[in-house]
Specification:
alpha/beta; TIM Barrel; 2 domains; 38% helix; 23% strand; globular
Length: 383
């Protein structure tokens, strides 16, 4: 069994208006570096029996803004995670830290590398200064490029996140920004469409009619142009929002999309672990950083839990796996759940095949790449 670990760092210097992730604002000099690391180590100590004998598939430090964390404290957490799992070579496991350009320089990147991190995912979002201000980012375009260069100087693997679909942004505008990032020689990029989430500043503005969204045809044009031009540069479009050159895919995210077990540590962290064939358990920790830190040594730190049956596991595996180029292994899913994932969906699958929305090739059920623009509706129809 291989298990991934997700560690949530719950603080940001400023909340972005589009973000609905669990995070709280904090001043740079108020980050409780050591106390938070100690809290995670307490949680790990009582969760350790859940992963006894398992291999460590990957570690991901997300947030929030994990690049605000002192690399030495992050390194303490990483070392404890490694020691909890079966022994392995230091660089055989992908260890990623999400970074904001405003809290990443070469010294920070070097500190993270010394702590055992081997991949950075940098939230560039845009290189246009006006657009960055609209998105509530603390960096400018020059700062984003400087952070990418600093990361590349110290880290073997670097990825950049960019966002398209801002009001007034054309497909050509977005490609101009993305191509400047690619000129640095990155081998992995993520291109996310700006979405309006209800419990955000943008969500409130949209409800009041004060936020104009990009038109659907602009989203579609940008999505298709990205995929075509990145393919010409040797990037595989391996998931709806992710592109990588050979061997550079995000192993941690692939573990999620393939339905692998993952342990969640930290305030607001979510974990999901198998409890037997066709059974699983999902939990979420206290999203309040203070409450989490105070109670992390106790098993009541969780504020949500649910038991998953075979059908719930099948639905989630289809929902996530059909977002990827490889699709879903029907045999693997049947072995994991003890049931045929197509039973009860025969008519929906047959209709989707007739429309060209899904194909079954060997053991794999997948959505053809040319139909990815309609992915949400295609997956919903299977339920």
């Amino acid at each position: 069994m291989a298990v991934s670990v997700y560690v949530h760092f719950p603080w940001c210097l400023q909340k972005c208006p589009y973000c609905d992730f669990a995070s709280a604002t904090i001043r740079r000099n108020e980050v409780p570096h050591r106390d938070y690391a100690d809290a995670i180590l307490r949680e790990l100590s009582w969760r350790a029996p859940q992963v006894a004998g398992a291999a460590l598939a990957s570690v991901f430090f997300g947030g929030g803004t994990p690049s605000l964390w002192d690399p030495r404290e992050l390194g303490r957490v990483l070392a404890a995670i490694r020691s909890t799992f079966a022994p392995q070579a230091p660089d055989s496991c992908e260890v990623t830290v999400e970074c904001n350009p405003s809290s990443l320089d070469q010294a920070k990147a070097a500190g993270l590398r010394a702590a055992g991190v081997n991949r950075l995912s940098i939230g560039v979002q845009s290189l246009d200064d006006a657009r960055l201000r609209f998105l509530g980012r603390l960096h400018d375009g020059a700062g984003a490029l400087a952070a990418l260069r600093a990361a590349q100087a110290e880290m073997p693997r670097v990825s950049a996140d960019l966002m398209f679909g801002s009001p007034g942004q054309t497909a050509a505008d977005f490609w101009s920004e993305l191509s400047r990032v690619l000129e640095l020689g990155l081998s992995h990029v993520s291109a996310y469409a700006l979405t309006i989430e209800p419990q955000t500043q943008f969500g409130e503005l949209h409800r009041k009619g004060k936020l104009t969204l990009a038109k659907d045809e602009v989203y579609a044009e940008t999505f298709l142009a990205n995929a075509d031009k990145l393919a010409q540069l040797g990037f595989a479009h391996y998931e709806v929002s992710n592109f990588a050159k050979e061997g550079e895919t995000s192993r941690h995210n692939q573990h999620y999309w393939r339905g692998g077990d993952y342990l969640g540590l930290g305030s607001a962290a979510v974990g999901c672990m198998s409890t037997g064939t066709g059974r699983g358990r999902r939990y979420k920790n206290d999203p309040n950083p203070g409450g989490y830190t105070e109670r992390s040594g106790a098993r009541n730190v969780e504020t949500f839990e649910e038991d998953l049956d075979a059908q719930a596991i099948v639905r989630e595996r289809l929902m996530l796996g059909l977002r990827t180029r490889e699709g879903v292994s029907l045999g693997e899913l049947a072995a994991r759940t003890g049931c045929d994932p197509l039973v009860g969906r025969e008519r929906a699958v047959t209709r989707a095949q007739a429309l060209g929305n899904v194909v079954i090739e060997g053991d794999a059920l997948r959505v053809p790449h040319e139909r990815w623009l309609h992915l949400d509706a295609i997956v919903a129809a299977l339920f």
